[in-house]
Design a protein that fits this description.
It is a single chain. This protein has 3 domains: 8-72 and 169-334, Phosphoenolpyruvate-binding domains (TIM Barrel, Alpha-Beta Barrel); 85-160, PK beta-barrel domain-like (M1 Pyruvate Kinase, Domain 3); 353-469, Pyruvate kinase, C-terminal domain (Pyruvate Kinase, Chain: A, domain 1), CATH 3.40.1380.20. With 475 residues, it is of the alpha/beta class. The radius of gyration is 24 Å and the shape is elongated. The chain is built from 17 helices and 21 strands. The strands form 4 sheets. Strands 1-2-3-12-13-14-15-16 form an 8-stranded parallel β-barrel, surrounded by 7 helices. Strands 6-5-9-8-7-11 form a 6-stranded mixed β-sheet. The relative contact order is 0.11.
Length: 475
């Protein structure tokens, strides 16, 4: 399952990719890890998909990561007596606490935290931004707004509140139940939706308690402004451009995407670019040229992973979408200028032996034209450091910990293999050379670079760099 590109592909599973044959085809087409979207589907359906992935992992003898995406708190209006209603530009439209069905003048908004946070002048966006309201008057029971865009509005549409920070946990009661279920299943990553501030991640981290890695979805302006604090409490971030493009002017999203990728890289945290990457392939076997450029841009910017949502979950061409994304990423990586883009985002080193060894491993590998950098890591930190360097040389992550190997399926440039911790230097070299040869990274006569920590098996103790030559099997 060796990939010819360092950027990973995260594919969402759903009704269009529900059976073992299709999920196997997705892996073979290029999917490195899978997303289970808990905004849709029952627990039993997700458990069945989880079971299939783990079976394929054994059959294909390669770690496959599983990410659970929690729905997050959804703010929605109530219902109408005669839906849909037509809102006209300039009219007054009221959101109130009255649970009775609405009409062209009002509708229920059953979320008291909104009434507490919203102020005159704030904007409310309904139905993914198709309807824009500006707040004129606020009381504990009513929000009087002016309609800015004429449109039809139906029951239970969602509301976005750009510029408003709600006193609302990022974990709803549904999310807490889903999280407990996912952790019992044994997933590798948990993505938290609608993060507003670092405290949201702190709450989630207490609940996860180390049983999975934690990803913050950046889809609120407040999360963008507090990114450093959120990153500190996260293991990775996802740039969820759908809601981000609703709550911010769409023309600002590309620059924000680049800034978020760069900030995550500087912090040494994986970053996923998501939403509408190959949207047209939901119903077409081919993407638009603009979508191809969008995927390539994320690859050139150094994103760890690029994600498919409805394309692989509910589209007519799930396998073709993964295959197309793989081809785009491979072709971008083959660009002679690709290394220049990666070097432009080089991260400063900390004054630690681990950073010094990792940076030296990249330089040595490039100087001697090594075929692979092999990293021994129990916790994954050594391999993540190697990934952060964005070397031209593939990274072979060797770990005795299956959970670590699965989480590293998200990391740029890393192919993971399970192996016992070596007991001495000779075994360290022999095992790395054997694995590199078995997986096709090197042949007899090739050179590899090995990093590890002594004492062996000690997390975060990277302090060894070794150059080794691949010998024929009989030697």
């Amino acid at each position: 399952m060796r990939r010819n590109r360092p950027t990973k592909i995260l594919a969402t599973l759903g009704p269009a990719s529900n059976d073992k044959q299709t999920i196997r085809a997705l892996v073979q087409a290029g999917a490195d890890l899978f997303r289970l979207n808990f905004s849709h589907g029952r627990h039993e359906e997700h458990a069945a998909r989880h079971r299939i992935i783990r079976e394929l992992e054994e059959e294909l003898d390669t770690p496959i990561g599983i990410l659970v995406d929690l729905q997050g708190p959804k703010i929605r209006i109530g219902t109408f007596a005669n839906a849909p209603v037509t809102l006209k530009r300039g009219q007054t439209f009221t959101l109130d606490r009255d649970p009775s069905p609405g009409n062209e003048q009002r509708v229920c908004l059953p979320h008291p935290e909104v009434f507490e946070a919203v102020k005159p002048g704030h904007r409310l966006l309904l139905d993914d931004g198709r309807i824009r309201l500006v707040v004129r008057r606020v009381s504990p029971e009513r929000l009087e707004t002016e309609v800015e865009t004429e449109a039809r509005l139906s029951d239970r549409k969602g509301i976005n509140l750009p510029g408003t920070v709600l006193n609302l946990s990022a974990l709803s009661s549904k999310d807490r139940q889903d999280l407990a279920f996912a952790l019992d299943l044994g997933v590798d990553w948990v993505a938290l939706s609608f993060v507003q501030r670092p405290e949201d991640m702190a709450e989630a981290r207490r609940l996860v308690a180390g049983r999975a890695a934690l990803m913050a979805k950046i889809e609120k302006p407040s999360a963008v402004s507090q990114l450093e604090g959120i990153l500190e409490l996260s293991d990775a971030i996802m740039i969820a451009r759908g809601d981000l493009g609703v709550e911010l002017p769409v023309e600002e999203v590309p620059a924000i995407q680049k800034r978020l990728i760069n900030t995550a890289r500087l912090a040494g945290k994986p970053v996923v670019v998501a939403t509408q990457m190959l949207e047209s392939m939901i119903s077409s076997p081919f993407p638009t040229r603009a979508e191809v450029s969008d995927v390539a841009t994320a690859v050139y910017d150094g994103a760890d992973a690029i994600m498919l949502s409805a394309e692989s979950a509910a589209g007519a061409y799930p396998v073709e979408a993964v295959s197309m994304m793989d081809r785009i990423a491979v072709q971008s990586f083959r660009d002679p200028k690709f290394a220049t883009f990666m070097n432009a985002g080089a991260t400063p080193l900390e004054a630690t032996s681990a950073d010094a060894i990792t940076a030296a491993a990249r330089q040595v590998a490039e100087t001697i034209s090594a075929n692979v950098i092999a990293t021994y890591s129990t916790s994954g930190s050594t391999t993540m450091r190697a990934s952060r360097e964005r070397p031209n040389t593939p990274i072979l992550g060797l770990s005795p910990n299956r959970d670590t190997a699965r989480r590293l399926t998200l990391a740029w440039g890393v192919h993971c293999a399970l192996t016992d911790d070596p007991q001495n230097f000779g075994e360290m070299v022999a095992r790395a050379c054997h694995t590199a040869r078995e997986l096709g990274y090197a042949v007899p006569g090739d050179k590899i670079v090995i990093t590890a920590g002594v004492p062996f098996g000690t997390p975060g103790a990277t302090n060894i760099l070794r150059i080794a030559w691949i010998r024929p099997p009989e030697e």
